[in-house]
Model the fold of this input.
Amino acid sequence: MFKLIQDVIVHFAMNCAPNSPPADPTKSALTPINIGSTDIFFYDNPSTDRLVLVFPGILGLDSGRTKENCVKLSKLYKVALVDIAGDYLEDLSKLLEWIPAHPFENFLPKVNEVVDHFKSVHGVSKFGAMGYNFGSWVVAKYSATPENVLAAGISFHPLWALEQFFQGEGSGPKIAEHITVPQLILTAGNDPEWLKPGQTVDTILSSRGIPAKLREFPTMFHGWVDRGDLNDPAVAEAFHAAWDDESLPFLHKFLG
Done:
């Protein structure tokens, strides 16, 4: 168990992007919509029937550029930023209490409620999903759920290692054994090796015929896509590569 704790803390708390924005620079006047037991921030695009579910990182919905990126994405798709956890980590010393209290089984009914709502109320015909660190674990787990409705899943600096708190050491890569959805997995240099190109997750998805692209940004730190300092030219370049060169084309290919 010590190794599991060390992995998560090292790859999240100690290795997050330096000079990151504070947790709340993208608060907006947009008010959430309540769907069943879940709040969502809905960024509508009336011209499309495609929607991207966005799952925030462990620091919450107002962390870094989370909402700003939703606004950008809504130029192409409907976007639903899902308040999947309800509460988020404000104090890193509470990490080991927070994680076990948030198993995926608590989230699946919420995702299903949100999906059903957008199908029936907004006529959504096709869904994609993206997540940041903790949120990427939600994307991966939902992608591995038989009833998932996704056409594409994107993981930014993924924290799939959370799986080990629930299923034991070595269980993180095994999520890929059940994924049925095309995946884009974008890792920082200090993210786990098994999530990088040519490593365990890549090998599993390839062997199962699941379309996937894995790309490492070796000079970036965990968290650069939503919280990296864009005043740093290297971070700005890597952010645009992750967003414009990888994520948008991936969504266009699989979501339309």
Notes: The beta strands are 33-35, 38-43, 50-55, 78-82, 126-132, 150-156, 183-188, 212-217. The longest strand covers residues 126-132. The two ends are 43 Å apart (CA to CA). DSSP finds ten helices and eight strands in the chain.
